[in-house]
Amino acid sequence: MRKGMGAREFSKSFGSKGHVLETDMAMLYILARYMTDSQWAIIQAVNYTEDNDTVASVVGAAVGALYGRSAFKESWIRGLSGRTRESDDGRIFEMINRIESFLSEKP
Known about the structure:
This protein is mostly helical. Helix content is about 65%, strand content about 0%. The protein is elongated.
């Protein structure tokens, strides 16, 4: 492995398909390589992995867990329905708010 290789080269060398070992390896590499720019990490996962919907969703989830909403461009968030089903717009945002409230409570 060449030090400093990009997501495309890593994906071609080590794989980035939907198999959990390839997905995890690609996700961890992308996060480590692009840790200072979480949006760029997601873009790399979308553009340069084989099973990009899987790898990018895991990278996005990790970025969100690590950095919260501020890690994402407002234009990426604006207009999202927040659905879990066809007719429950905003449900995801309600769930996030409840979790944040729960986590901020003192024991």
